[in-house]
Each structure stands twice: as structure tokens, then as C-alpha cells.
Specification:
Elements (H helix, E strand, L loop, with lengths): L5 H4 L6 E5 L5 H10 L13 E4 L8 E4 L4 E4 L3 H8 L4 E6 L2 E3 L4 E2 L8 H28 L12 H7 L2 E2 L1 H5 L15 E6 L19 E3 L12 H10 L8 E2 L7 E6 L8 E3 H13 L4 E4 L13 H12 L6 E5 L23 E6 L21 E4 L3 E5 L3 E6 L1 H18 L5 H10 L7 H4 L7
Parallel strand pairs: 8-11, 9-12, 9-14, 10-12, 14-15, 15-16, 16-17
Antiparallel strand pairs: 1-4, 1-5, 2-3, 3-4, 6-13, 7-19, 18-19
């Protein structure tokens, strides 16, 4: 699949991304000098982004100061002038990324008769105990103290929510006093969030911790993909569904909407760069990106994303880990596809998808060359989570596996807050459970 230029789909988009050797304030003046125009007056200032006045094309240029990247329309002479500079690493097309084609699950989950019976028994025992207390009060004048009643095992079962198979698979269910992600900021760059979902209402504030990078489009999710991914990261311990599905229920969520509301949503690189800049300025330590584009075998990784990821990963303070879905273009057992972009970047943690039996998902992309390495695997088949309209869905995709890993990374950071993003990257791999070929599973299934 050939890359698609953002300019072709939307003429208001900058055509090029300029990748500077270093992230420094000087980049603003460099671009300003070459384009012969300064910063736009009256344009709302965004933290970490300088906006230059529009040229003849009517397109504003943007400099992402902390990332060492700029987005601009360039004439041939301007292109040549920048390309010759020693502080410019490369000039690349501003491209379009897509959502990996997630699907509603067709997997039939095995029904545990024991668990179903326990739930029914617990419910009936709860009714019985309540009736006993009411009878005791009316017959004896005093209610029976709960401390004097024999403990009913069913009551404990009734109080505990069901857990998804994914949470069990990564070790959250079996941990004693597991961390919850409290105090750790995790960003999801996607289709937005259902602000009115009963499980997620109050998790973010529209215009503050939830923000749309797409001009003229609200953060409200109309597709469901972003809401599902956000739920996997930090859905509550006590869901209205009765099933816990969030890996880090007390993590501080940041939602950056980078996809438009088209029938087949697209996100341009400059909006994704806006989202990364916004998230890291808001203090995110982990950024989950279930997005990408197809990469052919032996194709290059996108230099702009590698430069950004490497800079954020190696920061001395406030380093940031980028987590990305490996891609859903596989057609196992007949064929598979190489890890897509930007997950193929060496400094981005690429996540494959497995099913409940720890088999690689039929759609999950694989390492097929020396570039696109799978780093780890996460639950990605039959994943239950929040969806638009206040509902819930089971979806399949590496899109679902990536937020499992992002949520787990938040649990690691809560336990070990001094970890750098580089250390976090390495720990997720070293603590993973090996379950198969490295080309498919990477280091294995991530574990708490």
C-alpha cells in the first residue's frame, strides 16, 4: 500500500515535515527565516507549538519545539534551502494514518458453570441474609450485629466484580494488593471518548484533559474505538456492566482526539504530532497509539516518529514511553504482514495480539524483516470494554492489545516511580512471559 499524503486528502494540511537534528528554540527562527514570515499574531498560543503566519498557500506552519519537528508548505527553493542545512536531518511527506481494522469479536467465550452458579448462590445468600436481619429486628427489637453472624462466602463473591480474561492473563487478577495506576498520567491518541459513558464520566474534562487536535471536531467519540481503548487502560474497578476491564483504574487519563469523524477515520501526521506534544506537555508518561499505516516488507520506518520517540524515551526527566499497535493486516494461517508504521520504529513499543488460549491472533502482524520488531504481546481477541452510547463491546485487534500494555506500564510506574521511559520499555520486555516465536509474540505476554 502506497503512503497517502495528507495534502492530497485535505489541501489545508502542511505538505512536509521538517526533521531537525535537535529539539531547540532555534528551530523556530530557522524556519521563520527560510519562509520569510514570523509567528502568527492573534493565534491562540499552544504549549510546545509555535505557529507561523500563513504563506501564499494559506497554510500555517507549525514548529513542535520539544519534538524537533516542523510542519510546513514549502516551495522548491525553500525545500532545497532547508535540505542543505546541517541542522536539518530530513524532510518527509506529511502522511495519513488509519485505525487498524478492529472487528467485533466472533469468539465464543467458554462459560464456566462453576462461576455462574457461584454468582447465583451469592445473590440468593445475600437476599437471605438481608431477610434474616429484617426478621431479627422486628421479632427481637434489635438487629443482629454483622460481627455476630457467620461469614457467608457467597457475600464475598457477590462483592467482587468479574474480571476479563485479559486482566487475568496479564496477572492483575492474581496480584496481592495490586497497584491501580494512581498518580500516573496515561494518554490515548485516538477517536476521542464518550464523555457521557457511565463508567468514564468524570475521568476527563473536555477542553482540558480531553482535547481535540482536529480543527472543528469535538472530542466526543462517534466511532467507539477511542472509548474502547480508554476503557481498557483505566476502566473503573466497579463497572456498571458488572465486569472489571480496566487495567489501571486510578490512572489519570488524557484523551487526545487525532482522528476525524469520517466514515473511515483518518489522522494526519501533523495532528498526531499535535497530540503527542499536547500529551507530553500535560505530563503524560505513557502515550498509547492504536493507529498506523501499512508497511511493506523491508520498507522503512517513519523517521519523524523514530526521532520523536527516541527523544522522549531518552529524556533525563519526564521521559515518555510511546506504545503502538503492531497492525491487523495478518491473514493467518495462510499469510501475515510486517509490523506497520509507526510501531515499526525501534524506539516505539510494538504490541502484538493474542487470544485467551495464548495463541497469536490470526490478524496480528509479525516481524518479517530487520526493521519491524514485535516487542511484546497483549490480550487482543474478545476484549470487553466501554463503547459509545454508554454501551460495552467485545472487539478484536492489536488496537486492544496496545492499551493493555499502556495500562500495565502505569502499574509499573506506580510501583517504581523513578523508572525512566527507557527502563520501563526494557522491563515490560524482560518481565513478559515467553509463549512462542519472537517474530510473532516478541518477548511474550506482558505480566504484572
Amino acid at each position: 500500500m502506497n503512503t497517502i499524503s495528507a495534502k492530497e486528502l485535505d489541501p489545508s494540511r502542511p505538505k512536509y515535515l521538517i526533521i531537525f537534528e535537535e529539539a531547540q528554540e532555534k528551530n523556530v527562527s530557522t524556519l521563520s527565516t527560510v519562509l520569510k514570515r514570523g509567528e502568527e499574531e492573534g493565534t491562540p498560543k499552544r504549549a510546545g507549538v509555535s505557529i507561523l503566519a500563513a504563506g501564499e498557500s494559506g497554510v500555517h506552519s507549525k514548529v513542535y519545539e520539544g519534538l524537533g519537528i516542523a510542519a510546513a508548505d514549502l516551495t522548491k527553493s525553500q525545500h532545497d534551502m532547508l535540505e542543505k542545512r546541517s541542522d536539518v536531518l530530513a524532510i518527509v511527506e506529511n502522511e495519513v494514518r488509519f485505525l487498524p481494522p478492529a472487528r467485533k469479536t466472533t469468539e465464543v467465550a467458554p462459560i464456566s458453570q462453576t462461576n455462574e452458579n457461584q454468582a447465583i448462590i451469592a445473590y440468593l445468600q445475600g437476599l437471605r441474609d438481608a431477610a434474616n436481619l429484617i426478621l431479627a429486628f422486628h421479632q427481637g427489637g434489635q438487629p443482629i450485629s454483622s460481627s455476630s453472624m457467620p461469614m457467608q462466602t457467597g457475600m464475598a463473591v457477590a462483592a467482587a466484580p468479574r474480571l476479563t480474561w485479559g486482566l487475568k492473563a496479564i496477572g492483575v487478577a492474581n496480584a496481592l494488593n495490586p497497584p491501580t495506576g494512581k498518580g500516573i498520567k496515561v494518554a490515548v491518541l485516538d477517536t476521542g471518548i464518550d464523555l457521557n459513558h457511565p463508567d468514564l464520566r468524570g475521568k476527563v474534562i473536555d477542553g482540558d484533559t480531553a482535547f481535540s487536535q482536529v480543527t472543528g471536531v469535538s472530542v466526543q467519540d462517534v466511532h467507539g474505538h477511542g472509548t474502547h481503548c480508554a476503557g481498557v487502560i483505566c476502566g473503573p474497578k466497579q463497572s456498571v456492566s458488572g465486569t472489571r476491564y480496566g487495567v489501571a483504574p486510578e490512572a489519570e487519563l488524557l484523551v487526545g482526539k487525532v482522528f476525524n469523524n469520517n466514515f473511515r477515520p483518518t489522522a494526519s501526521d501533523d495532528d498526531i504530532l499535535d497530540g503527542i506534544t499536547w500529551a507530553e506537555q500535560k505530563g503524560a508518561r505513557i502515550i498509547s497509539m492504536s493507529l498506523g499505516s501499512v508497511r511493506m516488507t523491508n520498507g522503512n520506518f517513519p523517521l519523524q516518529y523514530e526521532q520523536i520517540a527516541e527523544k522522549l524515551l531518552k529524556r533525563e526527566s519526564n521521559s515518555v514511553l510511546l506504545v503502538a499497535a503492531a497492525g491487523n493486516e495478518g491473514k493467518r494461517p495462510t499469510s501475515t504482514s510486517p509490523v506497520g508504521n509507526p510501531a515499526s520504529c525501534p524506539s516505539i513499543l510494538a504490541v502484538a495480539a493474542i487470544d485467551r488460549h495464548k495463541n497469536i491472533a490470526d490478524f496480528s502482524c509479525s516481524q518479517m524483516d530487520n526493521i519491524g520488531e514485535v516487542d511484546v504481546s497483549g490480550p487482543g481477541v474478545g476484549v470487553f470494554s466501554s463503547f459509545i452510547g454508554g454501551t460495552f463491546e467485545k472487539l478484536d485487534g492489536t488496537s486492544m492489545a496496545a492499551p493493555h500494555v499502556a495500562g500495565l506500564a502505569a502499574l509499573y510506574l506506580e510501583r517504581e516511580p523513578t523508572l525512566t521511559a527507557r527502563e520501563l520499555f526494557d522491563l515490560l520486555k524482560s518481565r513478559a512471559l515467553p509463549i512462542g516465536a519472537k517474530e510473532d509474540f516478541g518477548a511474550g505476554l506482558v505480566q504484572l
